[in-house]
């Protein structure tokens, strides 16, 4: 099997839903990172064989195959096609998988994996609003026969995880506080500067709260009476984009590219769709086994902090070193622009491996429907 290499990775700052980036059209967000990726790698854009973009809420400004419109909005060659995909929160991590698989199969040599989401302009759930407005069911008869009429939501799933693992509010808030502390420290040290392509006058992630405290979080109301969850232990509604260039060994030589990381393992697993957020645990176990690695071999992990119990349970079940998990903060502090998050996390992961000299990195996240992608890479 051919090898697949990450030869470029860039992202926008992650903006807040009411910040400066919320006014930027999603196609222009995507165009910005695509142009920057081409410029940074020096690749001939006409040699790119496909642009695979993750977008979750494919409605309004994020409809009409955003991968294609973003590439064209960037002024890049019309000969390059684009496809937009939805694997919920893992959409642009899946775009990385599809791009790498195209290269590893030998059918492609240069593929862009990207993701975009402007949750300030296109609210979460905008793509299901038609069903709601027209009183149409979101689930068909087969689903209802299997799972009944119970609530299926990320919020209930997170609360169910708190109950299953026995996580109380104070411990969840301690995790959230550490996410902000790590993100603020990384920001102050300039760890993110080289990976970010400033846009709309924004050069830093907007969601980090270096002044947050346990006392401030304790004053928030739970999402529902009797629940452990508050807004403080959930990911932020965000705006952002990221892009990576995946290349074969032949393309690396032909286009004089510099490999940053080698793709080691690509795994995908489904789990209980009611709990929804637990799949990173079994998916990671399978990915490590297939790669012939242990959790101790992983130097840096990026696991999406959709809610604090997701990475907390993953750490507990895998026996991972917490210091190696989201070392520069996660989505609780930095935000979660849905379809863009997979590409943002991979950009962070590649850069952190190079900054620290680590060998193996692992990325995973929970996804709607009870799914999870796991990507293992090796620094080159």
Automatic annotation (TrEMBL):
A single GO molecular-function term is:
acetyl-CoA C-acetyltransferase activity
The record's annotation in Gene3D superfamilies points to: 3.40.47.10
Keywords recorded for this protein, A-Z: Acyltransferase, Transferase
Q: Which organism is it from?
A: Nocardiopsis metallicus
Q: Which family does it belong to?
A: Belongs to the thiolase-like superfamily. Thiolase family.
Top EC class of this enzyme: transferase
Enzyme Commission numbers on file = 2.3.1.9
* PROSITE patterns associated with the record: THIOLASE_2
- Catalytic site: 89 (acyl-thioester intermediate), 336 (proton acceptor), 366 (proton acceptor)
User: What are the residue boundaries of the Thiolase N-terminal domain, all occurrences included?
Assistant: 5-249
Q: Which NCBIfam families match?
A: AcCoA-C-Actrans (TIGR01930), PRK07801.1 (NF005865)
Regions that span the bilayer: none
**Identification of the protein by name:** Acetyl-CoA C-acetyltransferase
Record bears the keyword Acyltransferase:
yes
Q: Where does the Thiolase C-terminal domain lie?
A: 257-379
